[in-house]
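Quick entry, no commentary yet.
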Amino acid sequence: MSSKKLALATVIAAVIALYFVGGGEKYLDIHLYQDLFERSPIATAAVFFAVFFIGTSCSLPITAALAVASGIIFGSMFGFLISSMATTLGGTVAFLATRYIFHDFIQQRFPGQIETVNKGIEKEGAFYLFGLRMIPVIPFWTLNLLMGLTSMRVSIFSLATLFGMIPVLLILTYTGSQLGEIETFSIAAVFTPGVILSLALLASFPFLAKALLGLSRRLAKKGVD
């Protein structure tokens, strides 16, 4: 193993060890961030981003939950910005970890999915990844690992992730912002217009994503022509 691979493996192992030894599960408690936000918004954003980034980098299936949580704590737009940066940067770290460290392990773990991804990349290139981010047929964390087995450039992966995740993160953080306004859980408090709209967006997201993806394909073809 090269020195670069050894260094990256050491960092990942240290992060995981510190998480469990230091009681890292407490940092997933939403009430902790609500209290922190009242005292120091900047510190809260920094800590939350770090948790989101590290969790995504370690390929933990927490993207949707933390995106909703960011909306609850910070509101829809600021929560979206934090979620977007954390998912893009954390996903890129997971992508690089597969490419340079866990290549053989991931290849053995997901043989069927790898074949599907390779065919999609061969047919559509980076647009295939963009489409899978908008329509998450493959979970976010799994796709990060699988893409590390391809020859896609890091910059292309990051850009496709950044722009492809925009619709779903907007909906998730908006949903969180509406849930964050609920003070008491009663029928009247829960079924407000904002909450109903957010639930409707979540339910209709697959159809919205397909429509947006179709529009993006048409625009891309016009650009090539």
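second:
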Amino acid sequence: MKIFETINKEFLAFVITCFSIIIDQISKYLVALYKASLYPPLEIFSWLNLVYVENKGISFGILSKFNISFYLGLVSFLISFYIIYLLKNSQKSIEKISLSLILGGAIGNGIDRVIREYVIDFIDISLNNFHWPAFNIADSSITVGGILYFWFILLKKNH
């Protein structure tokens, strides 16, 4: 019976992580399949474009000239094991949700880095003179999860 308690306790984390990975990988597959249609960028709204970018570095293309994407993928997987450890020991739902989003994003980008040796970025946002570098669903999962986790940590310290 203890196994069923563990499964129920971890089910939400498993579903969020898997959903994040699957949506990320499907979106990147579709963008790669139709990349010719994304040059020039496809305007969805005045502030949102779909583009095709091969990011061989870390966030915002940093370190891309060093061609270390495969190793960054391995680091993503090592970090994922630590996140799994944190997930296993977490008790609060918001903490589990945030860590699951971070885990899904890390695995999603890690898969790209190990298989392709680059990450496909395709969401391009700009407002007036502000232009954010292209990103993907995995990046979004990591960002939202990171914000939630930071918020959880702040609330935990204040109580």
